[in-house]
Structures are given as C-alpha cells and as structure tokens.
Amino acid sequence: xxxxxxxxxxxxxxxxxxxxxxxxxKKLVYFVTGICPRYCYFCPINDKKYQHDVIFANxxxxxxxxxxxxxxxxxxxxxxGFTGGDPLSKLFRTTFSIKKLKKQxxxxxxxxxxxxxxxxxxxxxxxLHDAGLDEIRFHADxxxxxxxxxxxxxxxxxxxxxxEIPAIPKKLxxxxxxxxxxxxxxxxxxxxxxxxxxxxxxxxxxxxxxTINKSSYAVKGSEETALKLMKYIQxxxxxxxxxxxxxKLKDRVQLGERIKRRAKNIAKPxxxxxxxxxxxxxxxxxxDPKKTRKELIKEFKIxxxxxxxxKDRILTGAWIIQELKKQLKEKKLKIAIIQNYPTWDKLxxxxxxx
Length: 354
What we know:
Blueprint: E1 3-4, E2 10-12, H1 17-22, E3 27-33, E4 56-57, E5 60-61, H2 65-75, E6 79-84, H3 91-105, E7 110-115, H4 122-131, E8 135-138, H5 151-154, E9 160-167, H6 172-182, E10 188-193, H7 222-235, E11 241-245, H8 247-266, E12 272-273, E13 279-285, H9 289-300, E14 308-310, E15 313-316, H10 318-323, H11 325-330, E16 334-340, E17 348-353
Parallel strand pairs: 3-6, 6-7, 7-8, 8-9, 9-10, 10-11
Antiparallel strand pairs: 1-2, 2-11, 3-4, 4-5, 12-13, 13-15, 13-16, 14-15, 16-17
Helix pairs in contact: 3-4, 6-7
C-alpha cells in the first residue's frame, strides 16, 4: 500500500534510518567534494561546487574536521549524510571524517553516504565499512547496467544498502529494468523528484523538461513517473522499502527542521525565533556604532549583552527597538526589525525599517 507521509512524500514500508533522521532535521549534510567521475545531465550541484574540490558542512564552507564537528554541535545533529560530487573521489577524507565523527559523537551517530558504482571496488568498500559507515546509497546509472553487478560487492559487508535515483519522466522502462535487477539485493529504494537546477551544466531544459509551475524547480511528470514505478513494484510483490522524496520535503522539512535546530543553538540573548526558525532581531544603523552603543548603554541602561556591533549597525532585541522607537528616531538613527536565517552565511530575509 502506498502511503502519504506527513513530510509531503509517499512510501511503502519503512523509511531508511538516514531518511528518518533527515526529515527531523537531525542530519548534517556533509559535502565532501564536488569532484565526480560521472557527468549526469540532471546534476543539481551549483556551478561553484560542480567538479571543484570544495568542502561544505551544511551551507558552511569548511577546511578541517574541527569545523565540521562544530557545525554538528551547532545543529544538534544526530548523524551525517556524506554527499558530493562523489565522496569516493576523496576516499581518505571520507574515511577519516567517518572515523572522527564516530569517535567524537559515538557509534550511534548515524552516517550514510551517496556514491555511484564507478569508483567502487571491494577494497574501497572495506575501508568505508571498517571506518564505521552505517548506510550506503548507490546512484545507479539508469541507462547503462554495465556496473550494476558491483552491488554484490557491497553485500559482502554488514550495513544498510539502498539505491537512490531521480524519477526521470519517459524513463519508466529503464526504471523497471533497474528495479527488477536490484529489488532482492537492497534494503530500500529511494526515488527523488527530479528538479531543474539553476546551473550551467544541467541539460534538462535543453532536453525539453519543464517545471510544474513558474515558482517551482520540480520537473513536470516526475511525480507521476515515481508513482507508476511504486505501483509496478507493488504489482510485482517485491518486498522492498520505497520512498518517493519530493522537492517540497527537501525545502520545507529537511532544511526547515535543520534550521530550527540550529536557531536554538546559535540564538543570541536579543534574538527571538519564529515558527520557521528565523531569527527576529532589531538593528540600529550608525556611522559610529561603537560610540552609539556606549551612549545607549549609558542613557537607556540596556545590558551590554543585548547590544552587538555588526559592521555599520548594532544588533539588539526587536522589543527594544519598538520600546525606544521614538527616542532613537530623535537621535536621527535609522532603525529596523530584521529577519535572518540562522545559517552560517546569516542570510537576511527581510528588513522592515521603522
């Protein structure tokens, strides 16, 4: 039976453990490298990452394991998803990171990894397994079955194995062939809603794919393809856990829940957190913020911890801005209530000047 989840997705059976943590915002997204042996025409990676050896922990560019561990703590993550590119392109970095994260956070810190079959051999898989990898997800080539037999190598080790691919419209025949081959060799099968990426290398638009509407990146026909394949699997009576993961799930649930967890850990004493995890704060703009901060402390008895200098402005509580709006305007100070994402880049969503 195909069930709707409360995460805007559909499933039969159970979600993989990595997915269960993901929808709760409990997974750190560890982008190991942008380097990959595959050049998929639907690749969603942005131009700054595509085939570049860069490392990110969630949205944060990182250079060492200490920064990755710090981001895990800030997000209160209970696991990590290793992605790319292909993490096997930088095998030592990948295995080193698995070991360090397991040592730091314990054996229950769940780690899953995405890769293709291109770089897989038994020696590499053993290194991943010995490092402590809990779950491996293969991005099988839908159009070429040449490397599919490598799944047998993965089954030599004790971990959860799955296939994760995009639901590409007009590829139903190939998808059925793929599932016929893998259904009894894997624990779970994930179908992702295909999205048109905002990058230069994606060829989906040139191939005639269109989005479902002007405000979405989701490709028209992808969901229908996923549901047809799920029904096919049911008809064949394959005993397999299936999850159709939508673009809406990734944006609203995965990212949204992770943002809420990070907000709780990084919020300053002057911050308020809204229901979406955005930080609500006040801003006082000044040509000389240091001087202005001293004056505010002296004149209005505002505690020092509620006044933080950030470039040409002072961040403070939104309630303080509201209470002192008249006095601050009399001092010719520009004031605003602002909203920020609690992410590393502190993306400002809005600024409502009073």
